[in-house]
Amino acid sequence: MNERLTVRMRRNGWKTVVLLLMAAALAACGASVSGGDGGETAGVHAGRGTDFPITVVDATGTEVTLQAAPQRIVSTSPSETEILFALGLGDRIAAVSDYDNYPAEALEKPKIGGTWDPNEEAILAMEPDLVIGGISMKPEIAERLRSLGLVLYKANPGTLEEALDTILQIGVLTGTRDAAEELVGAMREDFRRVTEAAAAIPEDGKVKVYLEFAPGWTVGKGEYLDEMIRLAGGVNIAGDTEGWTMINEERVIAQNPDVILYAADLIDMETGKPFDELIRNRPGWDSITAIRENRLYGLSEDLISRTGPRITDALLQVAEALYPGMIKP
Questions:
Q1: How would you classify the pairing of strands 244-246 and 217-219?
Q2: How confident is the model at residue 273 (pLDDT cuts 50, 70, 90)?
Q3: pLDDT tens digits for 82-128?
Q4: What proportion of the chain, given as a percentage, has pLDDT over 70?
Q5: Which residues contact 48 (CB under 8 A, 6 or more apart)?
Q6: Residue 211 pairs with which residues in a beta bridge?
Q7: Can you tell me the distance from the alpha carbon of 165 to that of 159, in angstroms, rounded to the nearest whole number?
């Protein structure tokens, strides 16, 4: 999910995040692209540019057609906004969501509301030739924007590979294929550094990891956060579950993780407690190895909740938390 934690818990409460997770349970559809030079697939074609008109099939299975490279882009998703800036398209971004805060230039862009339910009138006022939405956009909002004649591309990367494919596909859609391929190449190099270092860890030496990205919620197989734990050489104690699941506190105690990862700087709105304090003070959790040895690591909320160019920064943070000093500069 590109910004599963788009809505700050310290601002709107973790129950809003749960609503986003319910929407995020929808599986991503396959993505493909075709253009003037015949059929091609984003992520495998190594061409130097985009031949317009271009038709891309987005994560909802909808065909998105552009007659020319878009000059006015509205992004309703922080993940995709970061992609656009990384591809050098800052001057073509007409507006962004209220939660877009990176890079700094995003703060200066006009705002069109939240990622979950953006302001349609504000989007229309921008007169965009391309609107990009993420997992948080309600399906009915996407359909309504399309019914208004707007060209909408909706992304929904659930895995790391899908995150890379989304970058490549946006590169094709915006005529910045070269930049997208260069960016993905650099990200793959970060993946290589982590996986090669983790390969040296023996099976019986791997740490058991528990990740809680929102109060009461953890992640199992099929999602990129689980992938990051595994790539970094850890064993996710929720790895036998699927997707985004509510935690079983007794089960966490029984699994006795060596490391606990959590989203930093979050406040539980119901108790007013910092996230790490909430975790430490749960009944019986003081017996968990990670808590006894103080191996709780707060990960940047933005990094772990966005499947954009900085997702490899999140992977490097996870690797450092699991095995300090494992990744050499």
A1: antiparallel
A2: confident
A3: 999 999 999 999 999 999 999 999 999 999 999 888 999 999 999 99
A4: 85
A5: 177, 178
A6: 261
A7: 10
β-partners of residue 34 are: 39, 55
Domains in the chain: ranges and CATH: 9-186 (3.40.50.1980), 201-322 (3.40.50.1980)
Averaged pLDDT of the chain: 86
For the stretch 16-36, pLDDT in tens is: 343 344 334 333 333 444 444
Instruction: Provide the H-helix boundaries in 69-176.
Output: 78-86, 120-125, 139-147, 160-173
Helix (H, G, I), strand (E, B) or coil at 302: helix
Of residues 230 and 12, more confidence is placed in: 230
- The pLDDT score that the predictor gives to residue 49 is 63
Structure tokens at 208: 């058991």
DSSP type of residue 207: P
Contact 257, 279 (CB under 8 A): no
Distance CA 236, CA 247 (A): 13
Q: Is 170 exposed, middle or buried (0-12, 13-18, 19+ CB in 10 A)?
A: buried
- For the chain, the C-alpha Rg in angstroms (whole number) is 20
Q: How far apart are CA 192 and CA 305, in angstroms?
A: 22
300: DSSP letter: P
pTM, full prediction:
0.85
Q: Angle CA(312)–CA(164)–CA(19) in degrees, nearest 5? A: 80
3-state secondary structure of 192: helix
Token couple for 301: 């909320």
Which residue stretches of the chain are H helix?
9-12, 14-24, 78-86, 120-125, 139-147, 160-173, 177-198, 224-231, 249-255, 275-280, 289-292, 301-305, 311-322
Report the amino acid identity of residue 137.
Answer: M
